[in-house]
Every structure is written in structure tokens, then in C-alpha cells.
Amino acid sequence: GRRRCRRPLLALLLLLVLLLLLFLLLLLVLPLLLFFSLLFFVLFLFFALLRVSEYTTPTKGAWFDTETHATRGDIQFVPSYDNCQHIVFTVKVSKNDQHRIGHELVIYPSTDPSFCPIAALKRLFSADPQPPSAPLFDFTRRATNQPARTRSMDRPAYIALFNATVVAAGLPVSATKTHSLRSGGASAMLRAGVET
Fold first, then answer.
1. CB of 13 within 8 A of CB of 184?
2. Stretch (H or E) spanning 90
């Protein structure tokens, strides 16, 4: 088949996307909880190098299964929430994990607070406290913490939000896909000299 062009979302472009999210919040286009969720989400995907299938449900209205989908309980603050030196995220199901054994990713804080996935995660967990069985991400436009409301981690909702942000940032949607966060994070790590 034809090879798809997916441009990596490099650190400078990532900063542009983060600033755009803040701008949309200030214009009151994004509810505060959705802003915190998207902020952590973008940073988390950039630093964790995740595939879209590892953090979303496949379709709108798909059944959320705590055994296979990402939950709040899949995040561990090490050694503790208050004195967090890194987080461990358990990936339960992966494209490369045919036997569903799962694996753990360790994510360290960034030296730049505006790029820190752990600081963004703590802001999200503080603004929107949920039980460990709750979905890790919520792409609904909740204005307040409404525990009874259905949460959404579906791929179409995420892709729609991602594409809207890409368009608003002036980036080409045809070449800037959800995979761009994964490839951009990998490119940034390579440039920083992180060993593979």
C-alpha cells in the first residue's frame, strides 16, 4: 500500500500546541477539566511514546473495560504522590503484546515545568479526582466534575479534538496525525541522546 506521511510533532511545535490549548481555555472554548485532560494527554503521549490503541477505546460508545483500557489506577507515583520522582504507567494491551502480558513505562519529570507530564498529571488528578477504575482520559466537554456523567476515551472523540487543535495551530492535518506525538517524542529523545 501507499506509505502514509506522518510528520513528527517536535518540541517547538508541541509548545505551539500547548500554547494554543491555553489560548482556547482563555477564550472559554474549552472547559477547564477538558483543558487539564488534554494538557496532560498531549504531554503524556509525547513522553510515553504510546500508540493510539494503547490509550483509547476503538469506537464511540465502545464498552470501557478496566482489564484492557487505561485507567487512573494504571498510574503509580514513585515513591509517592507528594514526593514523585517518576511515574510508572502500566500498558495492559499493545499491538506488540499479542499475549496481553502488559508492560510498564517509566516517565520522569521534565526539567522544563511547561513540558512536565507529571506536573500536568497532578493538575488533572487534583482538578478531577476519580477512583482508580475511572478512565485515564476523558474527552467529553464537562464543565464541572460530574461523577455520574459518562466519560469518553473513544478514538473518534480524541482524533476530532486533536485535528481541531492541529488546524487551529496552523499545522497540516494531512501530515500531522495522532502518531505525530509518538514520533515527535522519539525524535526529541534521540536528539537528547537518550539510549535506546
1. yes
2. strand 86-91
